[in-house]
Amino acid sequence: MTRLNLALHGPEKAVNFAQGFPDFDPDSRILDAAAQALREGYNQYATTWGAPALRAAVARKQSAAWGHAVDPETEVTISCGATEAMIAAMLAAVDPGDEVIIFEPFYENYGPDCVISGAVPRFVALRPPEWSFDADELRAAFSAKTRAIVVNTPHNPTGKVYSKAELELIARLCIEHDAIAITDEIYEHLVYRGRHVSIATLPGMAERTITISGASKTYSVTGWRIGWLIAPPALTAGIRKVHDFLTVGAAHPLQIAIAQALELPPSFYVELLGDYQERRDAIVTGLQECGFDAAMPDGAYYIMAGISSFGAADDVAFARRLITDAAVATVPASSFYHDPALGRGHVRFSFPKKLETIERGLVALRTIARP
Question: Against a cut of 0.90, is the pTM above it?
C-alpha cells in the first residue's frame, strides 16, 4: 500500500500510516555512537553471535529488568533484527512435524517462519474489542505435538499488552506440555497502560523461553537491523549455529553503537514513552472523529481500526480507497490472519510519526465520506 500511495501521489502528498517506522531522526547520542564506532575501526566482522560489548550490554539490561543473572557468553545472541531472530529461533528449536501455536492477528512473518521450519501452525484468535483470547480455545490448541507458542507482547498489530494472568496460563500450559515459549518483545518500552511482563520471569519458564527483542523500535533505528535473543544455553547453542548460516552476523559498528544506547539514562525511556503517548492520543482521537472504531492501544504503536461506519465490507478495497481519495496508506487487517475473512472489518494504522505528519493524515482522512 505504501508503494501504491507513493506512485499515485508522490512523497510530498502521500502519508504513510502503513509501515511501522519513524519519520523522525534517532537520538543524536546514538548517531554519534555509530559515527564514533566507524571511525574507531569496528568495520570488520564481529564475533558471529554478537560483539562482546553488545552481548554484555544486553545481559546487564535484562539482568536488571528480570532480577536474575543473564550470561552474555552462553545465553545471548545478536541477530540481524528481531525478524531474523524469530526464524533463527524456529529453525533451531522446532522440528518438521512439530506444532507451533500462534495468536492471530499476528506479525506477518510468524506463519511463514513455521512453514519454513517444517512445523504446523495452530492459530488461536485474539478477539476485538479487547483482543483477548478464549482460555479453553488455547488449552485445546495444545497437544502432544506442540513444541512452541509464539507470544508477541506488546502486540503488533493490535497494541495488546498481555496481562500477567494471561501469561501465567500460557506458562502453565507450556510446562504441562513440555513446550517452549518464543516471545517477541520488541515493543517492551512502549507500554501506556498496564505493565510489560516477560514470560521468562515466571516460575519454571526461564529454562523454556526464547526472548527476542532489539533496537529498532526503542531507538528509532529500524534500518540498522540489530536484534537479540536470550535463551538457556542448550537453546542458545542451536540458535547461534542457525544464525551463522542465515546471516553470519549483524553490522559491527552498529552493534557497538547500540551497546552504548543500552546505557542511556532512565530519562530517555520516560521521554520516549511520553512522546509516543502524545502521538497515540492524537491519532486515536482524530480517527474517532473521522468515524473509525478506534480504541486506545495499551502498547506498541499500532491501532486496529474498525471500518464498518464507512459501509466498508472489504478491508483491502477500503485501504485502496484511502489511498485514492486521501493519499493515506494503511495496512488491510486481513494480511495479519491465516483466514483473511477474520480481518475484513479493520485496517491497521501505525503512528511512529511526527505530530505534524499525524495531523496531515487526519486532515486528509476527514474528507472520506460515510453513508
Answer: yes
